[in-house]
Each structure stands twice: as structure tokens, then as C-alpha cells.
Design goal:
211 residues, alpha/beta, 46% helix
Length: 211
């Protein structure tokens, strides 16, 4: 695995964040790091999300910053130029995966079926994002897919929360879980960084008790 994937495997949780601009991005990164989770998947859901990626990449080198909701080859180029160290996509889209591979940046494409997993493997990717995890079967889906694909590792995202985190992380095929419960958008817009840090600290402690 790449250096970024090894770090994600060690951290066990990837916060999926929605921030708009450098100021929010830096404050969020600091709050996560203070809670013991120096990693963030900054989704491209806000107009100035790229500015957030760039700011964290350049000004918070201790935080592993990635870009999420990447759905085109052009966006791959943009997030890599901004400094993203890993990429997350909601689907298994060949142009996106190929461009990430060409640029040498690890990508976790979204999968929801065995066919998706096979496409990812064909494109040289063996760490994937089960999405939307809760909708496509949750932990049971991962266990079922891990049978025919023992070489694949999953990062479930979508419906993951503090109540079911242990259910996911206790599965050997799960490299980490992606979630947003500790970084909900209202907390960001309110600037409630202490609450984000508190939730992050709790999440880290919870993850440490999983198998």
C-alpha cells in the first residue's frame, strides 16, 4: 500500500468533511489533530473546497489531507495540484481512476457491488470505498464481498456513525471507516471546534477498542 493508505490503516477513521475555504479548512484540521485524528477527506461539495485542500496541504503538513467527491479526471488534476495526498470517489469511474494512477496518487473508488470491485481490481486498485455503506448492506455486505475478493480492503462510508463504528472496524477486510458525525457541517459553520475535537477524541477511543 501507499504511504497514505498505510497512515489511513493506522488511524482507522477518515473524517469526511464539508468546508468552504482556507479558514474553515485550517480550523477543522486543527480541531481534528487536537482530537488525535490528523486526517481529513475534504469533499468537493463547496465552491471553495479546493482552497481548503490547498491550505491544509501547505500549512498543516502534519495532517493527511485528501479530496473526496472527485467525479472527473479534471478534478483529479485539480486536487492533486492543490496537494491532496489521496483521492476518494463515489463510484468506480475509469477515467477518474486512470488519471489518479497516472499521477501516482492513491484513490479509493466507490463500490456497491461485486461488479464494481472487479472493475476496480482490473484498474489496479485493491482498496475501495463501500458507498453508500448503510444502503448497500453495511457490515454484512463487506463480509459477503470479502469472500470472493480476499485481496481487497474496504473503507465503508455513508451511514457510519459512533453507534456502528465498531461493527465495521471489527471486520478484518476493513482498512478504515469514513464518517462525518464528528465534523457535521452545522458544527463547522458555528465554529464549534471544541465540540469537533471532543467528538473526534471519542471516535479515536472507540476505534481503539475495535478488532
Amino acid at each position: 500500500m501507499s504511504e497514505a493508505m498505510v497512515a489511513i490503516a493506522d488511524l482507522r477513521i477518515v473524517p469526511v468533511v464539508v468546508v468552504d475555504g482556507a479558514v474553515e479548512g485550517l480550523a477543522l484540521a486543527d480541531a481534528l489533530a487536537a482530537g488525535g485524528l490528523p486526517v481529513a477527506e475534504i469533499t468537493l461539495r463547496m465552491p471553495n473546497a479546493l482552497d481548503a485542500v490547498r491550505a491544509v496541504a501547505t500549512q498543516r503538513p502534519n495532517v493527511l489531507v485528501g479530496a473526496g467527491t472527485v467525479i472527473s479526471a479534471r478534478q483529479v488534476e485539480e486536487v492533486v495540484a492543490a496537494g491532496a495526498r489521496f483521492i476518494v470517489s463515489p463510484g468506480t469511474f475509469e477515467p477518474v481512476i486512470r488519471r489518479a494512477n497516472e499521477l501516482g496518487v492513491p484513490i479509493l473508488p466507490g463500490v456497491a457491488s461485486a461488479s464494481d470491485v472487479m472493475r476496480a481490481l482490473d484498474l489496479g486498485v485493491s482498496v475501495v470505498k463501500l458507498f453508500p455503506a448503510a444502503v448497500v448492506g453495511g457490515p454484512a455486505a463487506i463480509k459477503a464481498l470479502a469472500g470472493p475478493f480476499p485481496q481487497v480492503r474496504f473503507m465503508p462510508t455513508g451511514g457510519v456513525n459512533a453507534a456502528n463504528l465498531h461493527d465495521y472496524l471489527s471486520i478484518p477486510a476493513v482498512i478504515a471507516a469514513g464518517g462525518s458525525w464528528m465534523v457535521e457541517r452545522p458544527l463547522v459553520t458555528a465554529g464549534d471546534w471544541p465540540e469537533i475535537t471532543r467528538r473526534t477524541t471519542e471516535a479515536v477511543k472507540l476505534a481503539a477498542t475495535a478488532g
